[in-house]
Amino acid sequence: MGDWLAVLLLLAIVAGVGWLWWLQEHPVKTPKRRPAPAVQAKKLPPPTPNPPLVSPPVPVEKKVASAAEIPKPPLPVISSNAPVPPPVSAEFPRPAKNLLEAQIALARRVISPGSIDGAIGSQTRAAIAAFQRSQKLVESRAPDTNTLSLLTLAAPLLTDYVVATNDLARLQPLGKTWLAKSQQSALDYETILELVAEKAHANPVLVQKLNPQVDWDDVAVGTALKITDVVYPEPDEKAAFVVIHLSEKFLEAFGTETNLLAHFPCSIAAKVEKRPVGELHVVVIAPNPNYTVNPELFPESAELQALGHKLVLPPGPNNPVGLAWIGLDKPGYGMHGTPSPEQIGHTESHGCFRLANWDAEYLVKLVWIGMPVEVVP
Questions:
Q1: pTM beyond 0.70
Q2: Which end of the chain is more exposed for a tag (fewer CB within 10 A), N or C?
Q3: In this structure, are residues 225 and 329 in contact, taking their beta carbons and an 8 Å threshold?
């Protein structure tokens, strides 16, 4: 019995020694653990089959930040099946940035700088001064920082004008003599350039600069042109009175609260003795009138003196009184349009007050029979 115990003990010792030796030769390999990331990403929700049109707002940490640090809102997400909306300009409204933009901003307020040309001149300075008076600013007569900041533009500066069949059909050359003009069907535009320049309240030279690719001698139907986008708003009220400033060559219409309704450059009589000063009144309002040429009023015309009788000229923008005649109670005097709007304020008349056609047409909407017109030196 003792021998068996000794044998079992010896076997146990041998087995233990063998097990220890096997562990040393075959150590157990434990997997290494990666360090955890500093910030664990959030688990994203699964994509939805129909994503929303606008992504949810990004939460902003509540802290005091400058305007430059505030993140912009996310752009809307448009599904591939949805129609693409028209682009929306984030540029407007904004203040005018330069002289051309200031002229357009003034014109849209019915404060005309004359034919828009992007150049500073007496008419533009007078228009700026009128705007500054209306805003109670210092009258610098210049597009200074304060003035430009208030001359807000609500829409783009330019627009497209597509030449139509009717535009070309109305063109006709202007007769060289009074008799030839009296025999025409209308005293209409001679060229497309003249037509679109008046629609844009612009100088023809500016229109040419905006469209350098156009051959103005061969403009076809469907030609797309870039022009200044100026349309006078419909007046909210009739004028209470009009004041014409002879020395500065401009006309202003005021409302019942002495609020400025319109400011227009004008030409005046060449001879001082033909410049009436004082109060006159409106007695005739005639849109798109014909014109009676009286030889007595044109002693310098050898043709009219030889004819010895009056001629009636048909209506049209190239009529001597343009597209509107507003007669005054001084015989032979009135406020009217002109065939050459870009020359307003630079040339002089026989006695009447000439306006650009677009200004004369607007003035017709403001005046009334009996309205006072004050002419000041």
A1: yes
A2: N
A3: no
